[in-house]
């Protein structure tokens, strides 16, 4: 059998197919990839995806019900005492929801488009195939917005439909809400695409992705912890009706006459309430502007990509001059110079390399900053409590309250340990896994196993213990703690974290995987949980050994220093055992790492 | 300097199995100091697996590998100290600069600090990387990364240099540089073991050639020895296809005709 040249060329008529045909073909390909990945995934992952889908659907149903009830409630006589005229507020709800959807799509599709256009690596393949360039771009834009649009629709639509149901809006309102949301999403994704190209022209795409992930992680942690911090400043029921009214009035500020987002909201409300002429006018204006923005963005993105503007990076950095270092002189940061004097070369090499990589990789930096945020929030909460035990009902015996006061005075140790542990757990778990496909460099070199384990131990332990000391020192100064308490606290943090490092590193060695391509999944959740459980079992025992003797000695009215010395002896021995034994037990695993 | 008769890489009945499937099946050969040994084979024949066992990245199922006289399993640190390795894909730490990477490697091999500084500048200059030496490796092109990988392997001046497809992704100038350099390294008494798919390189550069197919070593010798043991083939390409099976390729060309 032979295949002649041109035998697999498409027929002439088939080249005249519409853009939609090619877009659908590309989207079908994407769907096939997703479905194939889903079908081949483990049952646990399949179950997780189905569960999340059901939860999101259930959540949107709940939002619909709550929105309906809340928006109807706003018209009740009870609420009218706080908000005399809720009508403007209700009319602004679509404006707020649509503005939030637009901004949400604009921001979230930036990351997805960055991945789709620059990091997925399939653009050359797609553009070289007999598919119109426009179809490729439309498919990419749709691919970028579809997941986020689905989520935003699932949460935004119930609010808008709830508004319609509670206000008895016209039936045309409901399909038009969906049309308007879709058009605004398309416009947002188009603008986002242009923004991606402009940014990638200046900064490398991979670096932009790292920065995005870094700020995304920090932002989400700040958001999740802001509630805790607010609670420490007082309960939320202290808001006065005036403050509530002011807060609700902020919503009306979204409704500015020059914003296409407000035209969309106004148009929907007008149509819902039967004011046809202004409603149709506003909606046509919105849809027209959205379509124009999308068409302009699409055409511009296509042109910029095809003529190479978006692919050639403009260097804004000055080219460094080659270094001229006199023989024997070593350049480096102070830690590096110190390490060079104290540690054997191979061990030092791994420590210095790991610190450099952790510092420069923003994905790791977000892991380092997280415990600092937690630490600052909990330190503020501790200081606001005054470091005193709760007064209770006065039934506790005096010796118990005295003992509790002793323990409370070491609350700063607790925070320092918590901050150190949070950082340490991450660093220890990823200690070996972070080597990934680069591990061959260490494995092929003459580095003894024990040196490698010690190096990884130091990489996890040193930043954690230094961070713990900083927090302990800072809080102790602010609390005006005694010098003996500070010194004892420093020793406890140092020894306690040494044990935690040993336990977590052992799990890091056991769980090490070098075949990851996505840094976010370099460690397995199950081992993270196990190491957290191990640390949680270790820490109370260790703290009990450090502080137990002090409490007993305090109850016996003996000098506190005796209790401190006893605590140091018992806790210190236990910590050192936990620092050494767990990594020693799994040392054999280091020899076979990277052979899978 | 090692004489050409000094064995620097020795494999004896080397076997590696993944489950029941043998990736390398009872391979024995010796590479001497002063020679460039080419290791050829089709995709999936077991070249990279063999190389990984030589440099201590993979534990053999059975058999012995010796590098510079040291058993890689029994004396891994001594064997590794004597060898340098360039993998097929230069997976280097992307967040280190070229200079930092070479310092890191120098420290791993316990080199003297002054020697590290001197050697890395020398190698960066040699591979035309001095200008980019302070840039992070993730900004390097594939060719630059390949050259950095080679520079890292040469940092400690190894007695045994093992290279897996060293010329892939290199421009002609760099490829020529590497070919010349490998010859010089061999002339100084080191053993150079390289796998390649480019038969022309193997034919022109290598003193001896080993051909592996389906995990078994099907031929070892100089070009002359390979020619004389064959069925009259003169070029390495013909010998290679004859030993590893060229019938399938003929069928493919028939389809494309």
Summarize the helices and strands and which ones pair or pack:
The complex is a heterodimer of chains A (596) and B (257).
Chain A: H1 19-40, H2 43-73, H3 77-80, H4 87-119, H5 123-128, H6 133-167, H7 173-202, H8 205-232, H9 241-252, H10 260-272, H11 276-306, H12 334-342, H13 345-360, H14 362-385, H15 398-409, H16 411-429, H17 440-443, H18 449-479, H19 483-510, H20 525-555, H21 560-585, H22 587-592
Helix pairs in contact in A: 1-6, 2-6, 4-6, 4-7, 4-8, 4-9, 4-10, 6-7, 6-11, 7-10, 7-11, 8-14, 10-11, 12-13, 13-18, 14-16, 14-18, 15-20, 16-18, 16-19, 18-19, 19-20, 19-21, 20-21
Chain B: E1 7-18, E2 21-32, E3 36-40, H1 47-54, E4 62-67, E5 70-71, H2 76-81, E6 83-86, H3 98-108, H4 113-126, H5 142-154, E7 160-164, H6 172-187, E8 191-195, H7 199-205, E9 208-213, E10 216-221, H8 223-229, H9 236-244, H10 247-256
Parallel strand pairs in B: 3-8, 3-9, 6-7, 7-8
Antiparallel strand pairs in B: 1-2, 1-4, 4-5, 9-10
Helix pairs in contact in B: 3-4, 3-5
The largest interface is: A-B, 43 and 48 residues
Could you tell me the radius of gyration of chain B in angstroms? Answer: 19 Å
Broad structural category of chain B: alpha/beta
Q: Which word captures the global form of chain A?
A: globular
Q: Approximately what portion of the residues of chain A adopt beta-strand conformation?
A: under 5%
Oligomer: heterodimer
Low-confidence stretches of chain B: none
**What would the principal axes of the Cα set say about the shape of chain B?**
globular
Derived structural class of chain A: mainly alpha
Terminal residue distance of chain B: 54 Å
Helix and strand run of chain A: HHHHHHHHHHHHHHHHHHHHHH
Total helical elements of chain B: 10
Count of DSSP-assigned helices of chain A? 22
Instruction: Report the major sheet of chain B.
Output: 6 strands, mixed
| Tally of DSSP β-strands of chain A | 0
Average of the residue pLDDT scores of chain B: 87
Helical content of chain B stands at 25-40%
Q: How much helical structure, as a percent, in the residues of chain A? A: over 70%
Order of helices and strands of chain B: EEEHEEHEHHHEHEHEEHHH
Radius of gyration of chain A: 31 Å
